[in-house]
Amino acid sequence: MRNPLAITGAGAVSPAGWGAEALMSAIRTGEKPPPSMIEREIGGNRILTPVLRVPTAGATTPKFARLRRASPISKFAAAAVAEALGGARLAEVTAGNLRVGVIFTLTNGCVNYSNRFFAEALADPAFASPILFPETVFNAPSSHLSAMIGSTSPNDTLVADSTGFLSGIDLAAEWIERGDVDGCLVVCAEEIDWLSAEGLRHYSPSYIPSEGAAAIYLEAATGPAGLLKLPDGISLSFHTKLEAAAKIRAQLAPNDDGLTLLVDGRAGIARHDRAEAAAWADWRGPRWSPRTLLGEGMGVSTGWQTVAAVEALARGHYQQAVVSAAGGNQQAAGMLMGTNKACI
Amino acid sequence: MAYFSDSPLPSQARPVVITGLGIVSPMGRDLGENSLGFRTGRMAFSPVTLFDTSRQRVATAGQVDLPDSVPDAGISRKAWSRMDRGTRLAWLAARDAMAAAGLSGGEMPMVIGTSAAAMPVGEEYFKQAHTPDRQRSRQLRRVELYQAQRQMTDMARTLGVGGPLRIVSNACASGANAIGQAFHLVRSGRADCVLAGGYDALCQLVFCGFDALQALSPSGIPRPFDAARDGLALGEGAGFVIVESAASAKARGARVVAEILGYGAATDTHHLTQPHPLGDAAWGTMQAACAMAGLMPEQIDYINSHGTGTPLNDIAEGNAIQRWAGEAVGKIKVSSTKSAIGHLLGGAGAVESVISLMALEGQWLPASLNVREADAVCTFDLVREPREASVRRVLTNSFGFGGANATLIFGKEGIR
């Protein structure tokens, strides 16, 4: 048997607010945050794009020099990490007593600065800002996180569809089992910009783009959010999304006994939801679909699902929880969590 | 890959070998062209024709001669047309690696490094979004094809590979990290065989970015480890390898190119774009890789350095090599192949791994070209001309923006 692994910390930033509690409150009440509009004009035409932004009030981004120039994605991620890690553990990391790895997953990344930098480069490359460019790189946010917590342990950024967060947890488990790190932060974050928001709505005008971050801390431990099953994602290279989602359900094989919570990736958009709706059509137990409230967060959506599941388990509301996600163009994935036991 | 709490812990530390190589670089589109180019000390820089450089300080780079036509009966015209330039480079190198290993697909995982991914598609989307003619279907296609995971999933399909996909984006260390992660998957028993590598294509945003940082050599000629070096040259390309357990390779009678002896990864938190001046993280990854391999520095016959040709990188790496090698530093042969093909960013670590493996197979060393007077940090044996040599173990370094550092060590099978 393997040594038990458990998620012992979680943090979130979402359109519902800063902190996992704001996320849970939105799920509990079912209240959708109010969208705002991004407006721009092109050729005399106004383009309006509704988006769900993280509220400015209540920001919990830690003070750290590198974050001053960073774009929102890094600030959201830093706040989620600070919450997931907690003050005591952070002190242990910075003192060099705890080796903490960072795995950052994203789909879209640092689009604000990419947009600004490329516009400057096209207008006149001689005036393109050298300050903006480094922040356009996919792994800039994760670099800031390692610097912020003072960790020289491995740090990886994974580019993936919305299921990437679960692949990140899989990699974190590998690092911990191999002894590379004592614990691992798995983080996902996205930020809104007109460029990506309009891009998402090319898929369907029903999508409301959103932003934020989610983070979990995984370590060798027992607890209510123990890792029970985390199968490989089923690639869409040779499976339809329907087949892939069904295979994930079969591998997770959770008990539908009313004590297991399903936190799925449905967004309330029929075409998007088809695979998961079919895979879990007979599920009678409790079921949450955070995307229907929080909008389409791309790379962060499955992170919010995971944090919601972890919080539900930590509060003793359910015995087990399943996270299910059928990504847009890479894979279907899922994870089963619940109380785990130490090896005898 | 995969975690099931009630399953046994995968075995640890089984031997891992490379059974196939593929490379596309400015030097050429296959192993033969690349081997010939590096053995003869050729440089492969040319004017950039992919985008407008008329207002840049620099107008040359290591650009691959990549025809638009479908290269192989194994891929349809439609599939090829959907691939961005970077994925085409990756596809060619991955195809060659699989063919060399005698594989025609299967359920193996893919671990792939990239930094810019399909950025040229994103650039086109950006430009179109600023025009009144923003036809939805074309913009949707660009949004979809811009995404690296979509491109790599399509690549997997056309290569017949059905396993899970992991895309590592650790800037310029991405390709090395991808091979290192594949090594760990096989070493621990999580996978028997992994298709791993890295790629990046030239694109305007990144070219402008490095120019804005004044990181590009104004002459277009990079001189890694030269005392008066003034910057890097960008390049493009892809390198892929088949990472396989020795047992699996033996069972199917595959030819073993080399054994992967060690891998180290660490994070340099000094600055987003500047390494620690003493190369702390680089020293750490070389130490870790050697410890895993059970080797002393003097047992390393050749280092393919990160060697960008920027003032700060080469000093940091040189200091790290000195600290790591200690008194043996004078015996360590070092060169930077970026002097010949440029910095391939997310593809660099994988392409330089393939170059190192070619050197190991062919018993030669590629050179650091264009060095007029070596920097004082070069207390090691800087290889300034290609040479024949006895090569048993090679080490390759890759360092990226954000502080991602990686070291890989390869050796002749059974040399450990």
Please estimate the helix content of chain B. 25-40%
Categorize the overall geometry of chain B. globular
Number of strands of chain A: 14
The run of helices and strands of chain B is EEHEEHHEHHHEHEHEHEHEHEHHEEEEE
Q: What is the terminal separation of chain A in angstroms?
A: 9 Å
* Strand residue content of chain A: 15-25%
Architecture blueprint of SSEs:
The complex is a heterodimer of chains A (344) and B (416).
Chain A: E1 5-14, E2 17-18, H1 20-29, E3 36-42, E4 45-51, H2 72-85, H3 87-94, E5 100-106, H4 111-123, H5 132-135, H6 140-149, E6 155-159, H7 164-178, E7 183-190, H8 194-201, E8 212-220, E9 226-230, E10 234-235, H9 241-252, E11 260-263, H10 270-279, E12 287-288, H11 291-294, H12 301-314, E13 320-326, E14 331-338
Parallel strand pairs in A: 5-6, 5-7, 11-12, 11-13
Antiparallel strand pairs in A: 1-2, 1-8, 3-4, 7-8, 9-14, 10-14, 13-14
Helix pairs in contact in A: 1-12, 2-6, 9-10
Chain B: E1 3-4, E2 16-24, H1 31-39, E3 46-47, E4 60-61, H2 77-82, H3 85-101, E5 110-114, H4 119-129, H5 136-146, H6 148-159, E6 165-168, H7 174-187, E7 193-200, H8 204-212, E8 237-245, H9 246-251, E9 258-267, H10 280-293, E10 302-304, H11 311-325, E11 333-335, H12 338-341, H13 348-362, E12 364-365, E13 381-382, E14 387-388, E15 393-399, E16 404-411
Parallel strand pairs in B: 5-6, 5-7, 10-11, 10-15, 11-13
Antiparallel strand pairs in B: 2-8, 2-9, 3-4, 7-8, 9-16, 12-14, 15-16
